[in-house]
Amino acid sequence: MQRRLTYTVGKDNADASPRDWFVATALATRDRLVPSWLASTKRNYREDRRRVYYLSLEFLIGRLLIDTLTNLGLTEAMRDALAELGVDLDMLRALEPDAALGNGGLGRLAACFMDSMATLEIAAMGYGIRYDHGLFRQTLKDGWQHEYPEDWLSFGNSWQFPRPEITYDVGFFGHIESSRLADGMLAHVWRPGETIVAVAYDTPVVGWRGKHVNTLRLWSARAPDALRLDAFNQGDHVGAQSEQARAEAISKVLYPSDSTPAGQELRLRQEYFFASASLQDLIRRHMRQTGDIRRLADKVAIQLNDTHPAIGVAELMRLLVDVHGVGWKEAWRITQATFSYTNHTLLPEALETWPVQLMERLLPRHMQIIYLINAMHLDLLREKGASDAATLSSVSLIDERNGRHVRMGHLAFLGSHKVNGVSALHSALVKETVFKDFHRLYPDRIVNKTNGVTFRRWLLEANPPLSRLLADTIGAGVFDEPERLIELEKFADDVEFQNRFAAAKRENKARLATTVFERVGVRVDPAALFDAQIKRIHEYKRQLLNVLEAVAFYQDIIAQPAREFAPRVKIFAGKAAASYHQAKLIIKLANDVAKVVNADPATRGLLKIVFLPNYNVSLAETIIPAADLSEQISTAGMEASGTGNMKFALNGALTIGTLDGANVEIRERVGDDNIFIFGLTAREVEECRAKGIDARETIAASPRLAEALRAIAGGVFSPDDPHRYAQLVDTLTYYDHFLVAKDFDAYWEAQRRVDARWRDQKAWRRSSILNTARVAWFSSDRTIREYAQEIWNVAV
Ligand code: 26V
Asked: In what order do the strands lie in the sheet with 418-421?
């Protein structure tokens, strides 16, 4: 550290700022993992291991200092060493900006998977984009969300290794030249009209106990020439840099694509840019190692994280056929054997398609290849006798319905040997809905891989008090073998252990109470039930249902001034896509309700509501260990899996939730008595919608809901603008697509079951302990082991 401070940062102790100390500490930590990194890389070559490539447009990493120290087992040594220099490790920890190269669950899953792949010593590499600006920073002004650019690189990035020598050309536009070969076959060469250079930046990813270190390789875009010197010399100083600006735009900013179908050309440029650079890179490595392109599928598995890298299917075909001279049929066999694809959503508006016209212009050779794949695929169906018009049009790569579009999900499905959903329910629905016809034709292709989370970050690092207690009680080996969490079961009724378990929770709650006060100026009592809903703001996630229940609860408290209620703190956090008007209005409503409720002495302090701004991985690490109740209340059938649900349960929060995504599997494991399930099932949602989504009758039948809606529509929470929520309440009344009204009474009743359990603290603690004890299966190590064995065919 001292050496790094002096020789890399170039400061002496007297002048060093806290940030200088952070940089010195990060670099000193990084130094400790480099030997293992180099050794891992060598071993991968020496043992000629099958490699796994995880292609993802998002990696929601968060901070790395404590994560790296924990995995290396150096946290305490570092703490002591810094203390001797008069520096506090926890103060440095807070200075690191989050690497927020993702929107939500999909990006965070990729980060958990990187951790688990390193832990399981899989020869894996993550590929993505090194965005200059990650997910926008959210502020709340008077309860309204505002977005500001995020600037994680402004003070440099101590974890990355720039690799200016590792570059690839990525083409766009242009035309195709065809020539006849000696054997009479046609050869095609794409002559791009524009070339962008992809430059590699590597971040080491260290596994548990530092045994194996993988690489996350992120691409940054550059123009081939930094400047048009002729233009510059003629005085056009800005215009001379325009090509550079156009090129760099590709890796400039992460699309906040949760909720906005990013139909922009730039988004397709991002997708092709990173897919192409990654494939060129892995093929170069493969050729160096084997010299035989035909063995690619024996040595390489590529996982497509959603359809964002799906253009890679056409790109690999192009590289194999046009560049490496492999025949079409063999190239297709190699492609299918190499790729596999994970689907993360069923929402029709989230399924990617690209206008054929755009594709023809931007990637003309790929469009030809897609047509060829489609022709071959449809011919095969005709051979199989499945050629009725309806089937053909539903499985065609081209959607002809309104303007021709390429269906990226279909391309990913066809180009892969396995396709997976991310929870048991979701995978079943994948078979029944988006890929129904494909499933009939290829019944073995769709499999389930229920998501998981890394226990290193989400338990060991985020929750030191509980981690210490676990180590004391069942031994520190639990962090090597999470299955041993089950040994906690026998302490579930042990009052002494219950007290210690509750004391750990209380410590986390006190810490969160401090954070709440610092960020929003509201005092919350750590003795109250902490009830948290933290995730992207989306109608299907139903933050509105939670706010409505809060309003009804508030009305109950003031209507019965003599009655005792279990005190609650409702915690909200999450970002809305900038263009998602309805989601932003829900944020404003939560804030408006909070303002009135928190200021009303008639609540007797029994209900507090806080909306914490700028939700990110680090804030999640503070909230989750402190939560008593985890809100997982999406409309059944709409949340593919959820992963926050797993993190909360692991940290001893009880779930209130619908039978959606992985909630179903959490219930199977923690047991019906230790989770609060309510509401319509996925099937019932479907039936209900078929009958119509007019909620007037439902509201009329629920006086409590009607009363809450009346207050909101009447401006009780928005006296400055009494009609602010008129449209919101109207939509809910006449077009209740997310079935908020339908589920309201069941939700209310489930919340009262929560209250009753809370009043019996012994029973609550027992359930809480049993949650932690029984969720070992949701470790992402288990998930990755399943991918390795059933999809990638690599030994673990
Ligand atoms: C959703 C939407 C909704 C409306 C319009 C546009 C749009 C675009 C993207 C998305 C999210 C799709 C992908 C995604 O993030 N899925 C999440 O993946 C997690 C990891 O598998 C899973 O736990 C979440 O349930 C799932 O929503």
From this structure: 161-172, 194-206, 213-222, 124-129, 51-55, 300-305, 339-342, 418-421, 446-448
